[in-house]
Design brief:
EC number: 1.17.4.2
InterPro entries: ATP-cone_dom (IPR005144), NrdD (IPR012833)
Keywords: ATP-binding, Coiled coil, Nucleotide-binding, Oxidoreductase
Structural class: alpha/beta
GO molecular function, one term: ATP binding
Number of domains: 4
CATH topology of the largest domain: Anaerobic Ribonucleotide-triphosphate Reductase Large Chain
Protein name: Ribonucleoside-triphosphate reductase
Length: 770
């Protein structure tokens, strides 16, 4: 049938399943190809392809696999026809990741081990041969590709090839865990609802966490996290995202908005001409950046940038516009996993010194200087407060954005009194506002914050703006302080040695994340919104981002190591300051050594405070049982005190709490917060304002008055405190709200450890004196 001379000497033997050999017959092959639907004119081309792959002594199964693969590449329909007609029903099939059945082919294992794991040819062939021998002895009709991969990985482990196994492994999540997520959700992040988007996020997160621990971080760092020595936050984003950013709206108001950063994938807007469009653009900036970052998004100097758009408007119009913005931020489910953007806005009571003389931008034009808009700045702040005071249509508080007021030297002038009273009325009703104390000596020109407490101050770069705008936290990783105390066993010198060991691990993890982030930004170009340019300069000031050491459980370290808690003795407090000063010096020395912005933060620890406590109770049961907080009969409820805070139910006055916690705020230059619980009662706004004024004479840099709230789902009545029944209609369908670490959220979404902390909290307001 074939007369082409190039096949005349094509003589090889094929080993049949019986072990017998037979001579390969070209004409027999041609007949099967024609029967499979191959056009005669294409036969020679396909034979040439096959000729380069067959070899003497190959099995009939291997030959059929080669034929099937070649025909599938030629034409999928023809490949399937061949498979159906000629591939033995008894031949072991593999269900591939492409949802197709193929015969087992050990050469695919060889190729995968070389390409994916970096194995040499000899090793790959040895492993593949052993796997082939095992799977052919299995009494099964087919295997899946993941099952084959696991058999290969088992062989790699048997041969001591652990590094190859790490690279070759398949990531995923057990079926049972997916069922649990579908049916019950997860409470690691209280801002996530249980919905289809969050289920997809949780499943994807688990895969990316596994990837980070296997592929991003070396084994000793991954093991340190897995043991609970340190906590690698945002593991699911370690390979692709930095954390947060303080945004500057001027570039978008001057040049327009490309939410994809390029303009190639989405519509492009010209600079906003009208105030409602400007506010929508502000919301879209936060949403777009959230798609590329793992943490919160904030607009610093929000009412400064917006002020030119409000010129000439009546107060009622400004209030309506602020309502538009607040609803945008609370109703657009644009963030990861079906949630609203974790957002903050920093507000001024007047135009700050560093922005005086700077061009005010509106609709792509310069419209004077910002200090000319002091009236509008105050009006925006007042309108926002009034909108937040009203709550939503059901009478619930607005949860986002976190609203942060900066208190500068002129804050308490008579002209600001009415506005300050309104702000404190908002504190009394909902507990929403945060305050930045710009009076403290360690503040520099401009300081901003987010509800999660990430802090930027103006002393870093070549200017205040470079230091505090269009940049943020690259990443923070957290040290488990109580465990260091357990391991030191009362030895001061050993305690600081172990602390340095853990800081070195966290430092190396942060350096890895730093290099990965640079690659994603500048090589892989997967963060186009952040890297878009204005006037030849990248929007995101990555060189100014903070690389941050966090810590949890200083109070418990002291309780075990010193024998008393932060509030119980001057010796404990002094030693606590020594510990955090040591971490700060470590960060400052790194800053000098590397030129990077190393800082220290009070970790929010929404889940980490409970995670560390549970790990430590497992490994150090005797040491922890007199130290941890919560109920030891329910280990999911135990927790450590966040960062350097006083224990939440410590018997201290507000003044004593401030006197202790202020000592750590300057040291924690990457982020700090003071939580002052106004748990049940309605505090007098004038009293709260008096406390605020006194607070500016302390070193507390950032604080809020937290209020517990209950909202009746039946009649929408808002009540102070955590109620089980409505005081109006008696219903027991109650939504309970409080602040978890750094944002107000429904208590039902909290994890068990944070719910226990909430129950333990003791009010420091009102009736306490500074």
């Amino acid at each position: 049938m074939i007369s082409n001379s190039k096949y005349v000497d094509f003589k090889i033997n094929i080993v049949k399943r019986s072990g017998n050999e037979e001579t390969f017959n070209i004409n027999k092959l041609v007949k099967s190809l024609l029967n499979s639907g191959v056009d005669y004119e294409n036969i020679d081309e396909i034979l040439s392809e096959i000729y380069g792959k067959v070899y003497n002594g190959m099995s009939t199964d291997d030959l059929k696999s080669i034929l099937y693969t070649t025909l599938k590449e030629y034409d999928k329909k023809t490949g399937k026809s061949y498979s159906k007609k000629y591939m033995s029903e008894n031949c072991l099939k593999i269900r591939t990741s492409e949802k197709e059945f193929e015969p087992f082919n050990k050469e695919k294992i060889v190729k995968a081990l070389i390409q994916e794991a970096g194995a040499d040819l000899k090793t790959a062939e040895r492993i593949a041969t052993e796997v082939e021998s095992e799977v052919k002895n299995l009494n099964v009709t087919y295997l899946t590709a993941p099952m084959i991969r696991e058999i290969v990985n088992t062989k790699l482990i048997e041969h001591g090839l652990e590094e190859f196994r790490h690279k070759h492994t398949r990531l995923g999540i057990p079926v049972y865990d997916i069922v649990k997520l579908i049916e019950r959700g997860s409470k690691d992040n209280a801002n996530l609802m249980h919905n289809p988007e969050s289920i997809h996020k949780w499943v994807a997160d688990e895969t990316m966490k596994q990837f980070a621990l296997l592929n991003v971080f070396p084994k000793y760092i991954a093991d340190s996290h897995m043991r609970g020595d340190i906590h690698l936050h945002d593991l699911e984003y370690a390979a692709v995202r930095t954390v947060c950013c303080q945004h500057d709206l001027r570039n978008f108001f001057k040049y327009g908005l490309k939410v994809d950063g390029t303009g190639r994938h989405t519509s492009v807007s010209k600079p906003a001409k009208h105030p409602d469009v400007a506010l929508q653009h502000a919301a879209k900036v936060l949403s777009a950046a959230q798609c590329e970052m793992s943490g919160g998004q904030s607009i610093d100097e929000f009412n400064i940038w917006i002020a030119p758009y409000m010129r000439g408007l009546e107060y009622s119009e400004v209030r309506q516009l602020m309502q538009l913005f607040i609803y945008e931020m609370n109703q657009i489910y644009a963030a990861r996993g079906g949630q609203v953007v974790f957002s903050s806005i920093n507000l001024e009571l007047e135009v700050p010194e560093y922005l005086k003389g700077k061009d005010a931008i509106k609709a792509g034009q310069v419209v004077g200087a910002y200090e000319e808009y002091d009236y509008e700045v105050k009006m925006i702040a007042e309108a926002l407060v009034d909108v937040l005071m009203d709550g939503d249509a059901y009478g619930k508080p607005f949860l986002f954005p976190n609203v942060i007021f900066k208190l500068r030297e002129n804050a308490f002038k008579d002209e600001n009194k009415d506005l300050l009273v309104k702000i404190h009325e908002l504190s009394a009703k909902w507990g929403l506002p945060y305050f930045i104390n710009m009076f403290a000596d360690y503040q520099h020109g401009n300081t901003n914050a987010m509800g999660c407490r990430t802090r930027l101050s103006g002393e870093w770069g070549n200017s205040i703006e470079e230091s505090s705008l269009r940049t943020g936290n690259m990443q923070w990783y957290t040290i488990n302080l109580p465990r260091i105390a357990y391991e030191a066993d009362g030895d001061d010198g050993r305690l600081f040695e172990i602390l340095d060991e853990k800081l070195a691990i966290a430092k190396q993890a942060l350096e890895i994340k730093h290099e990965i982030s640079k690659r994603r930004l500048y090589h892989d170009n997967v963060l186009p919104f952040l890297t878009q340019e204005f006037d030849g300069e990248q929007y995101y000031r990555y060189d100014s981002t903070t690389k941050t050491f966090g810590f949890v459980g200083l109070n418990e370290l002291l309780k075990y190591h010193v024998g008393s808690e932060l509030h119980e003795s001057p010796e404990a407090l002094a030693f606590g300051v020594k510990v955090i000063s040591h971490i700060r010096k470590y960060a400052d020395d790194l800053k000098k050594e590397t030129g990077l912005r190393w800082t220290v933060t009070q970790t929010p620890a929404e889940s980490t405070a409970g995670r560390f406590a549970k790990f430590d109770h497992k490994y150090y049961p005797e040491e922890t049982k007199s130290v941890v907080n919560g109920n030891l009969n329910d280990l999911s409820s135990i927790y450590y005190t966040n960062s350097s805070h006083v224990r939440v139910n410590a018997d201290v006055t507000l003044g004593e709490k401030v006197g202790i916690e202020e000592k750590f705020h300057e040291l924690c230059n990457g982020g700090h917060i003071g939580h002052f619980w106004n748990a049940e009662a309605y505090a007098d706004p004038e009293v709260l304002m008096d406390i605020t004024k006194k607070m500016t004479k302390t070193d507390i840099g950032f604080w809020t008055y937290t209020k517990n709230l209950s909202i009746c789902e039946k009649c929408s009545l808002a009540m102070s405190g955590l109620k089980d029944n409505c005081t109006g209609c008696g219903s027991d369908h109650i939504e309970k709200f409080s602040r978890i670490t750094g944002y107000l959220q429904n208590v039902s979404n909290w994890n068990k450890a944070k719910q226990q902390e909430l129950l333990d909290r003791k009010s420091t307001l009102p009736g306490r004196r500074i």
